[in-house]
Each structure stands twice: as C-alpha cells, then as structure tokens.
Design goal:
Layout (H helix, E strand, L loop, with lengths): L5 H12 L5 E6 L7 H11 L4 E6 L22 H4 L11 H16 L3 E3 L15 H14 L1 H4 L6 E3 L7 H10 L24 H13 L11
Parallel strand pairs: 1-2, 3-4
Length: about 220
C-alpha cells in the first residue's frame, strides 16, 4: 500500500530488500493532498515494482475529515498536542477500506503478504494504526477469503514500522537507499505541490529528519 509518503516508501524498500516481488496500490479518494499520487508514481517507477495500481474510492461525499471535507487542517501543533486526541485529519474507516482493496487484489494475485506503513509511536492519534487493529483485520482476512478458507495459505499483514520512531524510519530507509526527495507527506500543500511545513505531517517529518541527523530534502512553501 503506497501513498507516496515517507512511511509507505520505506515499507516498499523493506519489502524489496526481503525478497518480495512488489505490487503497489495507491488510492485517489478525494483527498485535498492528491499530489501524493504523483509522488507514489515516481516511487513505484524508481523502485521497479511489478505493477502500480491507482484505485479510485471517492470518500469526499462522506466527508468527516480535514483531508476530504471543508474542515481546516490543524497547523503548528506540538507532538504532545497531536497525541491528545484523534485528529481532524483522521479519515473515517480509511485503513479498513484501503486494506480491503489490498486484500481483494492480493487474493487475485495469489499474494499472501500485504505491507502497510502504519506507525503507533510518533502518531498514536489514529485508531486504525494500532497493532490490535492490524491483528483483527488479519484475522478477518483469513476468515473472509476463498484462498484462506480453502487452506491454500494464510494472509499476513506486515507492519514493519509500527514500533519505530520517525527518525528510526528515516534512518532505515536511508540505509536502503531511499530517496526521500521523491516522497510527499504534507496534508495541505500549495497549488504547486509544495509542503506547507506547518501541518502535523510536515512537523513530524521535519522533526524526524532532525532527530535522525540527516538533511530534510522536502520542498517547503515560503512562510
């Protein structure tokens, strides 16, 4: 599952290093930061995935999120404030919807392994990024698919970043040769696709590079 962001790109590099033949799946779901899809295409091409698929799932009519609705994206918050409550950028049931699409494609491909870049350390506000959620979805996947019910194998949901800090993620990806200049994390980019530098995603990304002791290659909009 490839959003074009820092985390999912690192996961793709990890899966490739582990010897998996990778198929990448991105979503156009009515998000305000859809320039991330351009980043996902660049990452998929650079990392030579077998096939890159963009699935269209319109969550904009449902709304309920700063990423899909007319709700302000939180800005200039400390990391402690980010963790106080589920943020406005939470998209209702997004990971459940996305994982379901990934599961369907995996079943068609004959793949048993789904990789997702969820993280429960640096950004614990999202309920669908917790280990217990992933475990529950994996259990459901093995009850709901023909291939699993027929005993042909077992679906596994891989979350290699779930216990890592943003700095550790960046260090791991850098060691694998990831070019983070290709990636996009900002929730509220400019019309030119430049990162705002002030949303939660930008702050976590910038702080992560600083903590990792590495230069941040992100193109930020002028303040």
């Amino acid at each position: 599952m490839l959003s074009g962001g820092l985390d999912s790109t690192t996961v793709l590099a990890i899966a490739g290093k582990q010897g998996y033949e990778c198929y990448s799946l991105s979503f156009s779901y009515g998000q305000r930061h859809d320039c991330e899809l351009q980043a996902a295409e660049k990452v998929a091409a650079a990392m030579a995935v077998k096939r890159h698929l963009v699935s269209r799932v319109d969550l904009k009519p449902i709304g309920g999120s700063a990423l899909t609705d007319d709700i302000a994206v939180p800005k200039a918050r400390s990391e402690s404030r980010m963790a106080e409550a589920i943020p406005a950028t939470y998209v209702p049931a997004r990971n459940t919807i996305f994982l379901s699409y990934a599961l369907a494609w995996a079943e068609v491909l004959g793949a048993w392994d789904i990789f997702i870049g969820v993280n429960a350390i640096d950004y614990s506000g999202y309920p669908d990024c917790r280990p217990e959620y992933i475990q529950a979805f994996e259990s459901m996947a093995n009850l709901a698919t023909q291939v699993a019910v027929e005993g042909k194998g077992r679906i596994r949901i891989h979350t290699p970043l779930i216990d890592m800090t943003k700095a550790q993620i960046i260090q791991a990806g850098t060691a694998l040769g990831v070019d983070y200049a290709m990636t996009h994390s900002c929730y509220d980019p400019s019309f030119r696709g430049l990162a705002c530098g002030r949303c939660d995603a930008c702050i976590l990304r910038r702080n992560g590079f600083a903590a990792a002791g590495l230069p941040d290659p992100t193109a930020y909009a002028p303040r």
